[in-house]
């Protein structure tokens, strides 16, 4: 490791010593490193970014498809029924005898998707 090839070889093997393979050039090393970085970026996209985008799209489609009378669950855990659609961003829900206005984005899911009502 610390001894150069000239000092490391003995006199008996000088004539028969094989020439060591050349080290890869700087360009080859850079290409290999860029290849590993490219593989890491592709894996990161496939395992992290793409599934998250898919979940966001499914949630936004579900929120857009909600209609009056459907039971929903909010992020805070409230269960209510959509009473009135105010605009693209807000709905009025009925929780028992109370009516409240919430943002559509705070709706987590439909009640029927979470709770299986067929067991009762």
Summarize the structure.
The chain has three helices and five strands. Strand 1 and strand 2 form a beta hairpin.
Describe this structure in words.
- The protein is α+β, with helices and mostly antiparallel strands and 120 residues long.
- The chain folds into two domains: 23-65; 67-115, SH3 type barrels (Roll).
- The protein is 39% helix and 22% strand.
- The chain is built from three helices and five strands; from the N terminus they run H-H-E-E-E-E-E-H.
- It has helices at residues 5-8, 26-64, 111-114, and strands at residues 71-74, 79-85, 90-95, 98-103, 107-110.
- The chain has a five-stranded antiparallel sheet with strand order 4-3-2-1-5.
- Strand 1 and strand 2 (79-85) form a beta hairpin.
- The radius of gyration is 33 Å and the shape is rod-shaped.
- The mean pLDDT is 85.
């Amino acid at each position: 490791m610390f001894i150069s090839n000239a000092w490391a070889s003995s006199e008996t093997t000088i004539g028969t010593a094989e020439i060591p393979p050349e080290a890869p050039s700087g360009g080859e090393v850079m290409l290999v490193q860029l290849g590993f970085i490219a593989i890491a970026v592709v894996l990161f996209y496939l395992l992290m970014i793409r599934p998250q985008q898919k979940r966001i799209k499914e949630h936004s489609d579900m929120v857009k498809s909600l209609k009056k009378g459907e039971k929903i669950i909010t992020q805070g855990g409230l269960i209510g029924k959509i009473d009135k659609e105010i605009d693209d961003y807000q709905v009025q829900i009925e929780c028992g005898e109370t009516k409240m206005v919430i943002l559509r984005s705070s709706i987590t899911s439909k009640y029927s998707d979470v709770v299986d009502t067929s067991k009762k």
